[in-house]
Amino acid sequence: MYQEIKFNSGAISPGECISVTWDYVSNNYWLFFGMSLLTWVITACVPCLNVFVVGPIMVGLYYAYLRQMSGEYVEFAMMFKGFEKFVPAMVVGLIQSIPGIVGQGVQYTSDFSSILLNQRRSGSYFAEGSLAMQSAPEFALSGGILIAIIIVGLVVFLFSIAWYITFFFALPLLSEYDLSIGETISLSARAGWSNWGGLILLFIFQFLVALVGVLLLCIGAFFALPIIFGSTATAYRQVFPPRAINPPSSPPAPDYFGGGFGTAR
What we know:
This protein is mainly alpha-helical. It is 69% helix and 0% strand.
């Protein structure tokens, strides 16, 4: 099956991803709002456990979006469909989350460094009994830490973009095909880098949609979730066309469906 899955290069139209998503999600908006909101709560607000369930939850969510896109029946329970492929979905989800984990580590390091510097400054203040000027070594240390944080942050940002492109299609692929972990990552990477320009523009469009939601008294961001998640599924469908159903090579026998139609008496 892996070799039979074809994808299109340079196929992503970010504007169409947003508009097409609204066209098919609006017909069942509140269902997708509920699924998207629960997905956000589980993946963003449940510490430690979230990295293990983000993959299966997202696979189920994309499964529901793809069914809605094709005009099939969708129900709320389908968002848990990904747990039927728990191990590959969990592993892919964990690997996909690495930039976020690294980013949190950089943030914690930055916060810890700021606390240490503030403690040293406070100690100098109380020791001298007045506001002391920062010494040259302390200034150099602060500047060095700041430069190191900026460099590491830039590296993490670029790494995150590359990771985003590589794994963009991984979970949607698992929602539609029974692939191994290696096959999923390999196919996602090849399709992602064949559409890297469109993916970056789509990310910008998704950010703007989220920003508009934030500007609408902040809570509007939650109402934008179905469009943000759905546009990922739409981009996937632009790159990976629906699976073709091969017609039978010859018409079935007259009695294939039962009964005696077409048979001589």
